[in-house]
Write a structure and sequence with these properties.
- This protein is an alpha/beta fold.
- The chain folds into two domains: 3-31 and 247-279; 41-240, Rossmann fold, CATH 3.40.50.
- Helix content is 56%, strand content 12%.
- It is built from twelve helices and six strands.
- A six-stranded parallel β-sheet has the order 3-2-1-4-5-6, sandwiched between helices.
- Strand 4, helix 9 (182-196) and strand 5 form a beta-alpha-beta unit.
- The radius of gyration is 24 Å and the shape is elongated.
Amino acid sequence: MKPLDVLEKIIGSREVLYTLLILAIILPILSPIGLPVTISSRTLAVYDYIQKLKLGCHVWMELNYEVAARGELEPAAIALIKQLFDKGCKIVFVSTAAYGPLVFSLLQSMAPDVFSGKKYGIDYVFLGYVSGGEAAVASLARSVTGTVSTDNYGNPVSELPLIREANKATDYDLAIIVTSATDTINYYVRQWFTPYHVPLLFVVLSVIAPSIEPFVAAGQAIGMLTGQRAAAEYEVLVGRKGLGLAAMDAQSISHLLILIFILIGNIVYWVKRSSQKSKR
């Protein structure tokens, strides 16, 4: 069999293409390469805003996304947490979704280095799942201790030093809403920004970003991080390779592989066509 025929057989084999694609996706995720990523002005603006927060600031973080959305939202959340902890900021985590405790547990398991050395109750607190939707968000803004009696682990919230320092919306320098649902954004705009003017930052899925954009354009949020691309950019800024950069590496390499197959396929086609014409 001629070399050209062998090459044609290889690129025409779906099994070969699928195997190479699987490897192109899995290997970068297991070991991120860190291919160059251009930082957008929007992502940089969010980073700069947080860098200017006072040392020891208090930040509220709502984790309202299902496990299926982890790949797109969790990398950005982890990168933000790293930046905040590096600045000495203190974070109160909460979820108004029933799957919140599982999501927080998974987030911690993916970023042990970020939480390393941080003391629970002093540097961070997880209130757990707080039911009630918008009513719960409004109540938490008025008083954390007046809304929940214990945290996710059964500790009385009134005895946690961090909650004593920041028990209401006006005690927080920033509220970050990591969500896959548009309703949650509405809750915080109405119950935290409008009455108390708490700066908001949205971390959202790419698919819902257009519906969230008006809030940012209206100045009801300091910014928005959208999808894995923004997460990858933020990982570059904070100096921690994570799933965001890994996902970008996997996409870039798999796209390059497909382009190579297309290019080789066209070269083989034109060479064989020219060869057949020369024989006539």
